[in-house]
Amino acid sequence: MSLVEFKLPDFIKDASARAIEKKMMAALPKDIDKTEGGFAWDLTYPTALEKSELLQYHLVLALKMMFHMWADGEWLDRHAHDAGLVRREANKAYGYVTVTGKAGTVIPAGFVFSVPSDSGIPAIDFETLEEVVLPDGGEAMFPVQAVEAGKGSNVAADTITIMRSPMKGIYHITNEEAITGGAEAESDDSLRKRVDDALAGKGDSFVGNNADYVRWAMEVSGVGYAVTIPEYNGPNSVKVVVTDTDGIPANEQILENVLLHIFGTDRKDMDRLAPVGVIDYAVVAPEPVTINYRFKLQTEPGADVETIKEKFKTELLEYYAKVSQEDMEAESKYVQYVQAAAILAQQVPGVADFKRFRMNGGLDNIEFHKDQFPVTGEIEVEPYE
Description:
Blueprint: H1 10-13, H2 17-26, H3 39-65, H4 73-82, E1 94-101, E2 106-107, E3 112-115, E4 124-128, E5 132-133, E6 139-146, E7 162-163, E8 170-174, H5 188-199, H6 210-217, E9 223-230, E10 237-244, H7 252-263, E11 280-284, E12 287-299, H8 305-325, E13 332-335, H9 337-346, E14 351-359, E15 366-369, E16 372-383
Parallel strand pairs: 10-11, 12-16
Antiparallel strand pairs: 1-6, 1-8, 2-5, 3-4, 3-7, 4-6, 9-10, 12-14, 13-15
């Protein structure tokens, strides 16, 4: 939902200290000196200031916190609790490192590998999740998880190259693929939308329809968007396709968490959310369909190109999810050229004008299928005056 504008109640609109003090002075006997700086004025004006602050700030804040559409922070969490929801926690990035060293070297659980610090940016640490013994040949690939949660724990391939504390017997360290899945704690806007959906009755089903699976998946930390493919393998089967908060295919840790959250450990699990009749199910990452964007951009005064690119990427992700969730029976879906251009023109602050807008170098719509999901690749911007 979009945030509904809060309008001051009529009884607060004229609550300035001057207006309150004027009413107080009018209530005094007429024969009392009411000039500014006088005895009566000195007594009434400080009280008027306190009352004005109480009405214009504290009472307004209290009114906002009473309704989820204006509440934020811990107060929004309380509304979410009443709706049976919990804010998603920050998620740690997860992936694999490859270590080459002396055969038989023992790498204990909790051992830390790092992306080196650079230009004042602190090192990013990743810890092993299990004990590893380098096999004959001296090379092993094993899972690691970021020590600190958040988007900052997502790193590119071949960037984890050092140990936090040196260990004999290790010669080379790298991550052959990017480490992904790091996400910040759920934003107020995201949680507010989920509360709004629940209170609007969109979460009343609990019978395992498409909306239920999407809602259940979105309750898991690190999940950005989810779509379902019902009866993908015949009756009583369902597939849930999941991306992370950056709009890229979810890593195996996020997929496992979604699987456990929705389907439990087995059909007898009391915490299972999915109907017991669903016996064939899968939670998978989509095959990415990368879309690169290129355009010439004229910015508004004070606007930053990098901020514009990030906002454009965020809005595109919303659009991709919307298209993916429409018409679940359709085999082919499309990211439309005109819609992507309209997002840049209408939904991204700081854009004064643009031209020569291209998707994957052309003007065509981009097709994708049920098991696929659009992923924003490069956004190449050429500023012009």
